Amino acid sequence: MKQQMIPQEIIEKKIFLIKGQKVMLDRDLAELYGVETRILNQAVKRNIDRFPKDFMFILTREEIMRISQFVISLKFSKNVYAFTEQGVAMLSSVLNSKKSVQVNIGIMRVFVNIRKIASSNKEIINRLNQLEKKVELHDATIKTIFDVIHKPMLVSETALISPEKPFTNRKIFWNIIKSCSKHIYWIDKYFSKAGFELLSESLNFKNVEKIYILMSVDKISENLRNIYKNFKKELNSKNITCELRVLTDKKVISSIHDRWIISKNVCYNVPSTDTILRGQYSEIKKTSNKPPFIEWWKKSKDIITEWNEINKSIKTK
After folding, report:
1. How far is Cα 207 from Cα 168, in angstroms, rounded to an integer?
2. Of 18, 177, 198, 278, which has fewest CB within 10 angstroms of its CB?
3. Quick one: 136 and 192 in the same domain?
């Protein structure tokens, strides 16, 4: 019986960028293969010589927390294994067939080396594709995984922020903001001055009619309020509505783990504004999981009004 293909969009959501590499987690791979995570990991441990460090590694606590910004439902109580492209291919052979360890490791490393020099050489790319067809492509799961892993990394889908590329980091974000039309809904509990700077540098004034920003009341300040007032005034002169509101409900605030930029027919998971400017390792990713922005917005308060209330409360104490 022919194995049913797994939709690419399902696998795309299970691929993460860690240490500059595209990886998949043990529990996600186990789900794709239809086995328990412990069974998958047992198979790996029985064949540990097939999984050198460039094939598989254990996530650090920091890396787990970084991923958890995008996958809220995951509960990391034990070691979490991340598999690179080579590790994914080797895992398929461990679960489904008996193949020479050295041959598989060699072929997978050839894939990596050839890709480094094959971007403009069609002949080499064709040879690479022929090699790939000989290794586990009868398995529909691994074929789909390869398709997704090799798919070009477009700004409109996924992009990596890193400290080595400060100018590229800003350009990636500028392109996202420039692509927005009609409206921009920006949710960032820790929205800062950097957010207004990114907007002013890249906003397409002709395409956007309104900007709604939602943040946590814990992070407001007089300086941010003043910056917002000036930014709002400038946009009003261009017939663009801009509102910055704060969430005061602790339950709502604690339930927000991600940050989003939402526009017409598009939604991105984004890092915090300060993270982008500092160039900390993070990821910008197109997503179909839109948050309940309107619901949260109805529960929020205008930043200027709330700041006045906070000051009034402080003075009366």
Report:
1. 24
2. 278
3. no
- Rounded Cα distance between 196 and 177, Å, is 12
94 belongs to a structural domain: yes
pLDDT, tens digit (0-9, with 9 covering 90-100), for 272-297:
887 777 767 778 888 888 889 999 99
What's the rounded Cα separation, in Å, for the pair 107 and 99? 12
**Per-residue CA distances from 108 to 20, 89, 122 (Å):** 18, 8, 19
CA distance 87 to 112: 12
Hey, what are 2's tokens?
Answer: 């022919």
SS3 153: coil
Residues of the domain holding 127: 8-150
Mean pLDDT of the region 192-205: 88
* Vertex 168: Cα angle to 166 and 171 (nearest 5): 115
User: Residue 243 in contact with residue 213, Cβ under 8 Å?
Assistant: yes
Total-model pTM: 0.52
Whether 271 is in a domain gets the answer yes
Residues 108 and 195 in one domain: no
The pLDDT of residue 226 = 92
Q: Report residue 85: phi and psi, to 5°.
A: -55, -45
Rounded to whole angstroms, the maximal C-alpha distance in the chain is: 77
Of the CA atoms within 13 Å of residue 289, those in its CB half-sphere come to 11
Question: Which positions ≥6 away from 85 have C-beta within 8 Å?
Answer: 22, 108, 111, 112, 146, 149
